[in-house]
Design a protein that fits this description.
about 400 residues; alpha/beta; TIM Barrel; 2 domains; nine-stranded mixed sheet
């Protein structure tokens, strides 16, 4: 069984607009208690708005800070600036190409030269694409093709960099279910380049519950309630076309078995718009199935209902469902599973990157304090970066 090395990384997203240079965020991260760093492209290091000369200078400065503070930048990840766009799914294919050539390609090349890992969230399907199965499949194939090209770029760097695409929680952004993630990982790996792995974010299992396919009984019940004038939370039916059938049934006061069956049959044409199983809303199910294919994970405390990117403080841990012992045991379960046909090799290292957000109104000292608590909690399990998973499991038995 592969016994991966585990690292605890502080993502610099906490530092945005406050500590924006290596000379300022480096000492803060060391003071918080982390020795490893994930650099957020949002923190004054974007491939579009920072020129090459600035990036080269930035890396030189980082080397000095790493030596001075005894820290190490291990990975980079995209942030809101790229996430809040359609990215590689842009309706204009020239824009998608522009993003690939002008952003992703230099990112892979520049990070690969330095042996750094890369993670990204760079696609979202517009609503009109989701309304047509053919358009959706074409857009999905295009995104997978781009991801495969990213893997081939990674192979060309001749480094040991690992590349990840982040799992999200709605049908508009792939991958978003466990089944979807497995399919995409296999398709990319079978193209022959370096693998593109998956980033599991522990709070990204909160949206899938809103996209479960309703049963026949649920549709029948909700339809009757709507016709009676009762105010209801509409069931998720998927595509606009299905909702047109629903609206017509309400207008005609039609609750017949035939119209319910018509709604069900219509939903079947849009399977990609629905979550598959309750495992999709369970972070531990994701870890047990895909933890071994997630060399960068995004760590946040969550109550299972919101992805607020909360710190692991005594207060948030009371209602939080992410517990250190259960977390590492779930990852170990993934590594114990036989190698799955068509899947990439299991990763031999995992960067646990703490993507803890700070609001604009938080005091700097408040931010630092909650991150210190986060570091202290997880160092109970991983007191030193690079510990093997087996060593951690012995500590928690």
């Amino acid at each position: 069984m592969i016994d991966p090395k585990i690292y605890l990384l502080q993502d610099t997203c906490f530092a945005i607009k406050r500590w924006v240079e290596p000379e300022t965020w480096g000492p803060v991260i060391k003071n918080i208690g982390f020795d490893s760093v994930e650099a957020s492209f949002d923190n004054e290091m974007d491939l579009f708005y920072t020129p090459k000369w600035y990036r080269d200078d930035w890396f030189d400065r980082v080397k000095k800070i790493e030596k001075k503070e005894g820290i190490k930048v291990r990975s980079f990840f995209t942030g809101y600036q790229t996430y809040r766009t359609t990215g590689l799914s842009h309706p204009n294919p020239r824009i998608a190409d522009y993003l690939f050539e002008g952003w992703l390609k230099p990112a892979v090349q520049e990070l690969g030269e330095r042996g750094l890992d890369l993670g990204f969230a760079l696609n979202s399907f517009p609503d009109n694409v989701l309304q047509t199965p053919e358009a959706y499949q074409k857009a999905k194939d295009t995104v997978i093709r781009y991801m495969a090209k990213i893997g081939r770029l990674g192979a060309d760097t001749n480094s040991d960099m690992l590349i990840c695409t982040e799992a999200m929680y709605t049908p508009s952004t792939i991958p978003w279910t466990i089944e979807d993630s497995e399919e995409i990982l296999k398709k990319i790996y079978q193209t022959g380049g370096d693998p593109v792995y998956i980033t599991i974010d522990l709070g990204h299992m909160i949206g899938q519950r809103r996209f479960f396919k309703p049963t026949e009984d649920e549709i029948s019940e909700k339809l009757a309630q709507a016709i009676s004038g009762e105010k209801i939370a509409e069931p998720w039916l998927g595509a606009d076309h299905t909702y047109q059938i629903w609206d017509k049934a309400i207008a005609n006061k039609d609750t017949s078995d035939a119209v319910v069956l018509k709604i069900l049959n219509d939903m079947d044409h849009y399977q990609y718009l629905f979550s598959k199983t309750k495992n999709d809303i369970n972070p531990y199910a994701w870890l047990k199935k895909l933890g071994c294919y997630s060399p960068i994970m995004h760590m946040q405390q969550t109550n299972g209902k919101a992805s607020s990117h909360a710190a692991f403080t005594e207060e948030s841990n009371k209602d939080g469902i992410i517990k250190g012992k259960a977390f590492f045991e779930a990852i170990a379960e993934a590594y114990r599973q036989p190698d799955a046909e068509g899947m990439p090799p299991k990763t031999d290292r995992i960067n646990l990157a703490f993507e803890i957000f700070a609001s604009n109104s938080e005091h700097p000292r408040e931010i630092i304090e909650k991150l210190k608590e986060t570091s202290a909690y997880w160092k109970q399990f991983v007191p030193e970066d690079g510990m093997r998973l087996s060593e951690i499991l012995k500590r928690i038995q």
